[in-house]
TrEMBL record, chain A:
One of its GO terms (cellular component) is plasma membrane. InterPro entries: ABC3_permease_C, FtsX, FtsX_ECD. GO terms for biological process: cell division. This is Cell division protein FtsX. Residues 60-146 form the FtsX extracellular domain. Residues 182-293 form the ABC3 transporter permease C-terminal domain.
From TrEMBL, chain B:
It is a peripheral membrane protein. Keywords: ATP-binding, Cell cycle, Cell division, Cell membrane, Membrane, Nucleotide-binding, Transport. It is found in: Cell membrane. Its main location: membrane. The keyword Membrane applies. Residues 2-228 form the ABC transporter domain. It comes from Candidatus Buchananbacteria bacterium CG10_big_fil_rev_8_21_14_0_10_33_19. GO terms for cellular component: plasma membrane. This is Cell division ATP-binding protein FtsE. Pfam families: ABC_tran (PF00005). The lineage of its organism: Bacteria, Candidatus Buchananiibacteriota. The gene is ftsE.
Amino acid sequence: MILITAKRSIIFAIQSFWRNIWLSLATIFIIALTFLSINFLVVINAISDSAIAAVKDKIDVSVYFKQDVRETKIAEVKSHIETLLQVEKITYISPDENLRVFTERRKDDTVIQEVLQELSGNPLGATLIVKAKNLNDYSEILKAIDNPAYSDLIEKKGYDDHHSAIDNINTITNNVKRGAWIVTFMFIIIAILIVFNTVRIAIFTHQQEIGIMKLVGASNSFIRSPFILENIFSGVIACGIAISVIYFILSLIQPHLNNFFAGVNVDLVGYFNANFIAIFGSQLVGIILLNIISSSLALGKYLKV
Amino acid sequence: MIHLINISKTFEPNTVALKNINLHIEPGEFVSIVGQSGSGKTTIARLLISEIKPDSSEGKIIVGGWDITNIKSRQVPSLRRQIGVVFQDFKLLPKKTVFENVAFALEVSGATKSRINSIVPQVLKIVDLGDKLDRYPQEMSGGEKQRVAIARALIHRPKILLADEPTGNLDAINSKEIIDLLLKINEFGTTVVLVSHDKDVVNGLKKRVVTIENGEVSQDQKVGKYVI
Ligand SMILES: Nc1ncnc2c1ncn2[C@@H]1O[C@H](COP(=O)(O)OP(=O)(O)OP(=O)(O)O)[C@@H](O)[C@H]1O
Ligand SMILES: [Mg+2]
């Protein structure tokens, strides 16, 4: 009985889908557009996230120690900073390593090379590179490093230059995120209105049929399910179209993205592949829920018999 | 079979369609309900299939022993399968064939395909349309369309057949055919309630006639005449 009813609902839904093929196509088109818009935001988010991640990755605090500070003392400072919750990672760079990198980097500068030759020992001290978990955490970390007990040990700190940059990035990030959310929210409202209206139109065009169904004793769920199914078809087809279009567009823009930000690689195709179920699954579930709610509301409102 | 006890119906804001109706119809009866336009006949029919609810008062509507006064909407489909309904405008689906229009009523209740294939032609034979299964409504006369509607109303083997002006759109000859069919259905044991305007039709029946006037039962005659 349940199987027969389910099968009949599917057949009714398919018939109704074909009978109103233009309405069905319009619905599919609009749902696909909505999917595309939402996924455009997903793309924007992915790009800005990876750009920001890349910039954040370049930000750290370098603590340059004086040349004569002993390694045990530095280890002490290191373990103190490590106790801060805001610290993600501390890297110790020994004076020898610093010298090696410095020499390597200036190997074409004969003056510097000569000076280094003349100096008997290593003129450079050790360095600690501190990475914070969040951009906002650097001020706390810097405060901790400013500890008077360390002022004799530290030659200089390499952070102050980044401060305004980080502030800028923070502002931009937050604005982009806020804008993206507002636009996403608007698209969701539009999608709700469109789906609600599509269901209403579908029900309106079937009013006669529904009225007769009610008269001959069809249950409400039997009457409702073909409409929901019909829209689920549309949702699935629209989702399929959106997926094809998105991957097509991604394959076109991916080559440009590799050079777009210097040093930043945004792998959008990879991102969509990795999050395929999460991205499209949630959108499909969303559209299905929306259909169930809209058709319940529309049927309740327009068919009080 | 049908009991309307102290039933009133007011359409907001202030149309009193029915006032304190008391009407009892026994199983197997053939009752005509007559009255002027706007007297409240269709309102009675709509109450019986719970398309509308009576005013909340002490009134009661009982159909086949079932108190449907405050029926839950979940139970309405089951009530509608016990009362076959026929209307003046037939209410057939234009894009479905005769067979499909009748089968439709069985499909929605979850009947199997084999049951549909065996019952639908039988019922269509009863209304004398056994050879027109594949026609579409627009290819049929008004009388034939009404017979399709009657076949559909009978498909659930209802205890009651409720016909609201079934001959309203038909000429005299077709009307007579439909009334004869209703009489035949009544002979099989189905209780028939016929709402009608048509003096000739009602007077020819020699059956019980209930007259409604301004929302009240003004006359109830065992072998009635349409007097107004
Ligand atoms: N939905 C409604 N809202 C308001 N008033 C209504 C509604 N339905 C019916 N009425 C009123 O109730 C009264 C009874 O209507 P009803 O349809 O029962 O008459 P009727 O006897 O069937 O008439 P007819 O012979 O013309 O079909 C009328 O005055 C009508 O205007
Ligand atoms: Mg009427």
